[in-house]
Amino acid sequence: MQEPFDLFGFQLNEQIYQYSDSSNDGLFQNNNQNIDAISEQDNALILNQIESPPPQKEDIDVVRILNFEEVKVFIDELICPICSYILIDPRICSDCSQGFCKQCLTQWFNKYHLKSCPCCRSISNEPDDGSKAPKLLFKLLSKLKISCKYQNNGCKQAIWYESKEKHYEKECEYKAIICQYCFEIFLKMESETHFEKCQYKPKKCKWCSKSFSYYKHQKHQDDCSPRKLTCPICVQEFSIKKMEGHIQFCFPKKQLKIIKNELQESIQEVQKAKQEIKESIKEILEIDMFIRKQKQKCQKKKQLDEILNNEIINSFEQPVCQQKDVDPQELNQEQVDFQEHHLQQQIKDASIQIQEFGEEQKINNICQEEAEFQN
Ligand SMILES: [Zn+2]
Ligand SMILES: [Zn+2]
Ligand SMILES: [Zn+2]
Ligand SMILES: [Zn+2]
Ligand SMILES: [Zn+2]
Ligand SMILES: [Zn+2]
């Protein structure tokens, strides 16, 4: 008995086929190989590598035919009995002339290990993918005007059956794209915007300008030989290789410089203190000198006072002594006048000296006040 047409089984297999072909694992390995290969190429080239998964057979439902009225007479000839969609890459059964999609027929033969026509069940010696379709079938297919397979994404374009591949590959901006770096899906028109913000795209090393995958970039940065490091002590740049040797030399040098600066500061402080002491000694000597002068002045004044006192006493005592020796009545007028004049002169001298002494005293007081004020 022949097996019934197992549409469910076929679709299931097809899904498995799609899955194994576009699983993340497979893509990821592919990506790594690609990125290694492009590590020295620029971003423009990388952008071209954003690709959609391998093309699957397109399922064109009859409802997508835009000129149905024109083609409805022969539309049955253009439908594959295996997938129920419009023929893609048509093949035929040489016995019943039924058309099939090439992919559908190949899978059918593989599934049942028998080259039996799904329609007439005849077993033939045809090639594994059926017989070549006649030109007429291609001509009928070329009459179809269909909507774009990305119409759900927004494409409003009406396309001829023959030029659909060209439209999908080159023209349609609504084509779904999967980023090979982050696996995000977006429209073709968004690919440039996506690439700009894609976090997993290859990055250029800023030291050697080579591009590396997101995963290898960081590791490369750590040991990229042209990379420069900044010495934390002297802020000069050195390559990674030279830095270790430099630090061993730069650190003690810096320490020495610090100690030298500290020593210099200490020396300056000592010199400053020395200068201050010198100035203090000078001031003390000046005060001492002033006190000595004052003392000398005081002694001189004392001597003057004594002389003055003695002279006053003498001047009063002298006439008394003379009175004892001479009789006052014997003194003539001339002598009296002389005595009187002599006394007046002495009183005048004494009052001048007293006045001078008073002024000197005043000056001394002022000097003393000034000295006290300065102290
Ligand atoms: Zn088919
Ligand atoms: Zn057949
Ligand atoms: Zn389109
Ligand atoms: Zn991405
Ligand atoms: Zn580098
Ligand atoms: Zn340094």
TrEMBL record:
Highest rank taxon of the organism: Eukaryota
Record-linked Gene3D superfamilies: Zinc/RING finger domain, C3HC4 (zinc finger)
Residues covered by the RING-type domain: 80-121
One GO MF term: zinc ion binding
Signal peptide: none
Keywords of the record: Coiled coil, Metal-binding, Zinc, Zinc-finger
Protein's UniProt name: RING-type domain-containing protein
